[in-house]
Amino acid sequence: MFEGILGYIVGGAVIGILARLFKPGADPLGWIMTIVLGIAGALAGNYLAGMFGVGATWQVWALAVGCAIVLLFLYELLRRKKPVATT
């Protein structure tokens, strides 16, 4: 069980770092959020791979990185500060 959790953490870190490298622009994320984002991308990519019948390992990894990039964009949208209206 410990190997599975450690595998998700290491895999999530790799996927999160790859997503941050491929996505243009600066991302104000720390290491923990990068790993969490990578794990979420890995889970979403694995789900999509199962849905589309993708079996090749490199294709599953590509889907995971792609999902992590989408999650990066969503995270950036949610974190964007809204301008304060002055009256």
Automatic annotation (TrEMBL):
<protein>
    <submittedName>
        <fullName>GlsB/YeaQ/YmgE family stress response membrane protein</fullName>
    </submittedName>
</protein>
<comment type="similarity">
    <text>Belongs to the UPF0410 family.</text>
</comment>
<dbReference type="GO" id="GO:0005886">
    <property type="term" value="C:plasma membrane"/>
</dbReference>
<keyword id="KW-0472">Membrane</keyword>
<dbReference type="InterPro" id="IPR007341">
    <property type="entry name" value="Transgly_assoc"/>
</dbReference>
<keyword id="KW-0812">Transmembrane</keyword>
<feature type="transmembrane region" description="Helical">
    <location>
        <begin position="29"/>
        <end position="52"/>
    </location>
</feature>
<keyword id="KW-1133">Transmembrane helix</keyword>
<feature type="transmembrane region" description="Helical">
    <location>
        <begin position="6"/>
        <end position="22"/>
    </location>
</feature>
<feature type="transmembrane region" description="Helical">
    <location>
        <begin position="58"/>
        <end position="78"/>
    </location>
</feature>
<keyword id="KW-1003">Cell membrane</keyword>
<dbReference type="Pfam" id="PF04226">
    <property type="entry name" value="Transgly_assoc"/>
</dbReference>
